[in-house]
TrEMBL record:
Region (Disordered): 29-72
Keyword vocabulary terms for this entry: ATP-binding, Helicase, Hydrolase, Nucleotide-binding
Catalytic activity annotation: ATP + H2O = ADP + phosphate + H(+)
Pfam families per the UniProt record, alphabetical: DEAD (PF00270), Helicase_C (PF00271)
EC number: 3.6.4.13
Single GO MF descriptor: ATP binding
Any single GO CC term annotated in Swiss-Prot or TrEMBL for this entry: nucleolus
Family that this chain belongs to: Belongs to the DEAD box helicase family. DEAH subfamily.
Official protein name in the record: RNA helicase
Residue span, Helicase C-terminal domain: 292-409
Length: 409
């Protein structure tokens, strides 16, 4: 496996070499066009849209959501792979208390399903909660869905993350981190104000999601008398606030969740919005940061406009690469597109992270340097190229060591 060389920062390295741009291009081989997954498919919501890709990446070539006229946004909603299955999804959620929904990243699960539930009246006068593993996802998704509902965030669509809440008595769809909904359980153990709880990105399986799933299972039993154990065709409680649970994920590990909820129905949404081409480096890269830098400039100098998203393991690498890109960009011959570098990582202030979502100024290529917080859940408008170093930081328990730590894998 390629490892990072312990060396000076990249910026220093290239300053010393005094090169106009990194010299050696990274060689790439095309390893796949989109490929359909084979699935065990109890139920399918088909679309005639684009082919599937295997890589989880969140990009949108649609420009900034907020600057689009409502008609375009509605057209965009209708063209999502999930739109073809709207009626079937609603019907399944209506007739089952627990539904597991699996679909490719970008198919429209997180933004559309809460709106379908809202529009169908399934939630009655209760709220629809959508849980997210990360705060940046909760806030950006709420903003997007508010735009789709032609309103501003905090009214019909709101969010709740640690130290920040945007909601009002008129809020019906609330995006919140799993930590926040677990916190709400302390004050309201039956989550009575919610009619539907959507557990999104369930495959991430944090301690909090597991805790939430087990609570939801017992809350559902308490809020609805359940003679048949599956919640089908029963008498509902007088308030009409029986709890519906929807578990959503982009992976194929649906059976586990279904089994946990007494063989709950599994729905598969087929289709992805954009075709994806994947290239792997033809040779081992000794230094992933250096390889990412060279690849970025290969794209910047050779490829048509489009923003670039680069995945890196952590803040230190992000800061180092940002300096290197800026230093090298100053040496490119004039007349090229400008480069705007934005960073995204958990420890960065939310306002700084939000910069990545702003549209690029004209004649500028935005380069977003992100940890895996941008890997799933969020959509960054304008991204056309993704460079993945394949590395991330992982917490591990090391028995042979003093107990634990974070390592780059
Ligand atoms: N912040 C955003 N800006 C622009 N488009 C967005 C934004 N969020 C979502 N979208 C659009 O909605 C589509 C579906 O996103 P989403 O519902 O999050 O998909 P899923 O949850 O299935 O991965 C995206 O592919 C993109 O076209
Ligand atoms: Mg999603």
């Amino acid at each position: 496996m390629p490892t990072r060389l312990a060396s000076d920062s990249l910026a220093q390295k290239y300053r010393k070499n005094d090169t106009a741009a990194p010299r050696q291009a990274v060689q790439w081989m095309n390893v796949s066009d989109d490929e359909d997954r084979t699935r065990k498919t109890p139920f399918k919501v088909h679309s005639n849209g684009q082919t599937n890709g295997r890589k989880r990446l969140r990009t949108s070539q649609n420009g900034c959501a907020t600057s689009m006229p409502p008609s375009t946004i509605q057209e965009q909603r209708n063209s999502l792979p999930i739109a073809k299955g709207k009626a079937a999804i609603i019907e399944e959620i209506r007739s089952n208390d627990v539904t597991v929904l699996i679909g490719e990243t970008g198919s429209g699960k997180t933004t559309q399903v809460p709106q379908y539930i809202l529009e169908s009246g399934l939630a009655r006068d209760g709220l629809i909660a959508v849980t997210q593993p990360r705060r940046v996802a909760a806030t950006s998704l709420a903003t997007r869905v508010a735009v789709e509902q032609n309103t501003t965030v905090g009214r019909l669509v709101g969010y709740s993350v640690r130290f920040d809440e945007r909601s009002s008595p008129s809020t019906r769809v609330k995006y919140l981190t799993d930590g926040m909904i677990v916190r709400e359980l302390l004050a309201d153990p039956l989550l009575t104000k919610y009619s539907v709880v959507i557990v999104d990105e369930a495959h991430e399986r944090t301690l909090r999601t597991d805790l939430l799933l087990s609570h939801l299972k017992s809350i559902q039993k308490q809020r609805v008398p359940s003679p048949d154990g599956k919640g089908k065709g029963k008498e509902r409680d007088a308030s009409g606030r029986q709890l519906k649970i929807v578990v959503m994920s982009a992976t194929l590990d649906a059976e586990k969740f279904s089994k946990y909820f007494a063989e709950a129905k599994i729905l598969y949404v087929k289709g992805r919005q954009h075709p994806v081409k994947i290239y792997h480096s033809a040779t081992d890269q000794m230094d992933y940061l250096d390889a990412a830098l060279r690849t970025f400039f290969q794209i910047h100098t050779d490829q048509p406009p489009g923003d670039v998203l680069i995945f890196l393991p952590g803040q230190e690498d992000i800061e180092s690469l940002e300096k290197s890109i800026q230093a090298l960009n100053r040496r490119l011959p004039s007349g090229r597109m400008e480069v705007l570098v934005c960073s995204m990582y958990a420890a960065q202030a939310p306002g700084q992270n939000a910069k990545a979502f702003s549209p690029s100024p004209s004649n500028t290529r935005k380069c977003i340097l992100a940890t895996n917080i941008a890997e799933t859940s969020i959509t960054i408008p304008g991204v056309k190229y993704v460079i993945d170093t394949g590395k991330c930081k992982e917490k591990r328990y090391l028995t042979s060591d003093t107990g634990g730590g974070v390592s780059i894998c």
